[in-house]
Amino acid sequence: MVEPVVRFLLTDPEGIYVDATLGLGGHAMSLLETSPALRLVGIDRDRAALDEARRRLSKFGGRVSFIHGNFSDIASHLGGRPCSGVLADLGLSSFQISDRSRGFSYMEDGPLDMSMGSGARPVAKLLAEAPASEIAGILRDYGEEKKSGAIAALIVKARENGALTTTSELRSIVGRTVPARFLIGSLSRVFQALRIWANDELENLRAFLPQAAALLTPGGRLAVLSYHSLEDRMVKNYFRQEEKGCICPPDFPECGCGRVSTLKVLTRRPVLAGPEEVDNNPRARSARLRVAERLQR
């Protein structure tokens, strides 16, 4: 989704832009190449990814600065400095998925880790100690998995013979619970749920959105790429709420809350990847891009 991100985000060719989830720097590189006067701040909680992005973007010299940290702390990372645009590309990167030692993929055997960086909660500890009701709630709330109760019950039963420590052990448990024709979908939802829980992804997104919007100069834009319905719904609702402004009941004769519109939504429907991009990058199939513009303060 590089082309639409650059097209929507780049409004000031000499502005300061923030890639709040830098990853390997793909979007950042396109922004820097498109506008030679642009400056960029890259933030990532994954130190290994940040180091690789620093190497890839080294040719841009002092136009890029790098911050190791969570995008949920974007306001403190920038020290309140205003910017012309902010991008958040949520979820996993191919860099993280391809490293089996991180335990993100159900296709590879690895430790039950799923940490995106500092501050993550241990998945193996959760599955070894939590009651079935807590595990089921995580799978249901963060993965929207219909078989969450049955999977959680089998996890608790299986650990009587020893703690679960690998992704292949978890895959086996899901496979014993879900019919073969539904297995891949359930595995995706189970691993997604545990990853979201481990990295507190939804709470981080909830904290990030108002901070990022407040940092924008008038006319500056906030672009968010999400990959599952929970994230996309949160972004959509936040943008709509900030566009509406007033939250008084509709039958009130006049506004009493004092809230005003702060954003203009530029994408009434999410922007989706085209067929060619999906062919080249199957992960793009689930990408949803939403963009909003900061109104006058």
Notes on the protein architecture:
By secondary structure, this protein is α/β, with parallel strands linked by helices. It contains 13 helices and 7 strands. A 7-stranded mixed sheet has the order 3-2-1-4-5-7-6, with helices on both faces. Helix 2 (26-34) links the parallel strand 1 and strand 2. The mean pLDDT is 93.
Report helical residue fraction.
Answer: 40-55%
**What value does the average pLDDT take?**
93
Q: Please give the number of β-strands.
A: 7
Individual helix count: 13
Oligomer: single chain
Gyration radius, in Å: 21 Å
Low-confidence stretches: none
What would the CATH topology of the largest domain be? Rossmann fold
Shape: globular
- Just give the CATH class of the largest domain: Alpha Beta
Which tags fit this structure?
297 residues; alpha/beta; Rossmann fold; DNA polymerase, domain 1; seven-stranded mixed sheet; 13 helices; 7 strands
